[in-house]
Amino acid sequence: MVTELDESDGTLTQFEPDYTILTNVDDDHLDHHGSRAQLNHCFEQLIFQTKKTVFYDATDSRSVALCAAYEKCQPIKQDADAKLIPFPGAYNQQNAAAALMVADQFVSREMSQTRLRAVQPVRRRFESLYRNKGIQIITDYAHHPTEINALIEAARECEYKRVLAIFQPHRYSRTYALKAEFATVLEKLDRVILVPVYPASEPWIEGGDSSDILAICHKQGWDHIQEVEQLDCAWTEMENSLRSGDLLLLIGAGNIDYLRSKIK
Q: Which of 15, 103, 193, 257 is deepest in the core (most CB within 10 A)?
């Protein structure tokens, strides 16, 4: 059985897997954990409870620090076969390399190569919704600056003339804590339309709105980033500006996925 775990509510400490792949550790969900130290403790508990081997990203300093005290931890090794995965993005190749290290414990490398070539994208993970007339539209669940940066790098590999985005921040607490980081990563795009934060049942927090990200952007002179008040308006404005050579990213973990219904 393969299970995807995350740190959002701390429940990953309830698992005792045979193998763990630790992709990265970043400040997120501190509304639940309360501090960076408690977040680190959550991951370290999973490492401790892993029965056989933990494979970790040696380029991620926090993963390295957490794994340093455990002989069961091994860095993910670059693997030429990881390039067989049919998706762009260094993070996808890194994930494939880690998966191969686990698969090597159970099946032949030939079988892994065959399966890797045939991997299909999952919903809202670099999922292509439209490709026609030189325009592509991709939806992605990324909602943390590190994830969005990796997404943009993958999108740039596709060699479109412009990479555009509609971005819906997720949670007021995350937006409040990471608004400067969001602004910095969004600057890398050719055009961005921000829509209001998806609250995910959180109460409003002053300083945690999309407008707070926008204020940082405009202070830096990044006028290619703007905000509208409704998803429908964002779609209409962006759709009218699309031209051949454009890649449009629909980014966020909230109800921005509703926009797939607008694509024709």
A: 193
Alpha helix ranges (H) inside the chain = 30-33, 36-49, 61-67, 90-103, 109-117, 145-157, 172-186, 210-219, 231-241
Cα 207 off chain centre by: 23
Handedness of CA 101, 102, 103, 104 (dihedral sign): positive
Distance of CA 84 to the CA centre of its chain: 21
What whole-number distance in Å separates Cα of residue 93 and Cα of residue 150? 12
CB atoms within 10 A of CB 47: 18
CATH code for the structural domain at 127-262: 3.90.190.20
Stated pTM of the model: 0.92
Name the superfamily (CATH) of residues 11-117.
Mur-like, catalytic domain (3.40.1190.10)
Q: How far apart are CA 60 and CA 50, in angstroms?
A: 19
What is the rounded CA–CA span in Å between residue 6 and residue 12? 6
Q: Print pLDDT tens along the chain (264 aa).
A: 899 988 888 888 999 999 999 999 988 887 888 898 999 999 999 999 999 999 999 999 999 999 999 999 999 999 999 999 999 999 999 999 999 999 999 999 999 999 999 998 889 999 999 999 999 999 999 999 999 999 999 999 999 999 999 999 999 999 999 999 999 999 999 999 999 999 999 999 999 999 999 999 999 999 999 999 999 999 999 999 999 999 999 999 999 999 999 998
The gap between the terminal CA atoms of the chain, to the nearest Å, is 38
Cα(90)–Cα(150) distance, rounded to whole angstroms? Answer: 8
| CA dihedral of residues 227, 231, 236, 238 (deg, nearest 10) | 50
